Amino acid sequence: MKLHLVEDLLTAAMAVRVFGRDALTVLRRLAAASVLMGMSELRGRRDVGGGE
User: Fold this and answer.
1) First to last CA, the chain
2) In this structure, what is the dihedral angle of CA atoms 20, 22, 23, 29, given to the nearest 10 degrees?
3) SS3 49
4) pLDDT tens digits along 22-42
5) pLDDT tens per residue, range 1-15
6) What's the DSSP call for residue 52?
């Protein structure tokens, strides 16, 4: 049973090492996109509503 746990942990560690950088890149792009969406939302409110 312990050998299976070690194999699973090694597989998870390898997956994190291989895909970790890609996951960080995706998270950074999502964060940047959400910031841009928020900024455009604020600009839209200021232009239409007069600064609520």
Assistant:
1) 61
2) 150
3) helix
4) 888 999 999 999 998 888 888
5) 688 999 999 999 999
6) -
Judge if pTM exceeds 0.70: no
Q: Which long-range contacts (CB under 8 A, 24 or more apart) does 46-49 make?
A: none
**Segment 20-29 long-range contacts (CB within 8 Å, at least 24 positions apart):** none
Q: How many whole angstroms separate alpha carbon 31 and alpha carbon 25?
A: 10
DSSP sequence for 6-47: HHHHHHHHHHHHHHHHHHHHHHHHHHHHHHHHHHHHHHHHHH
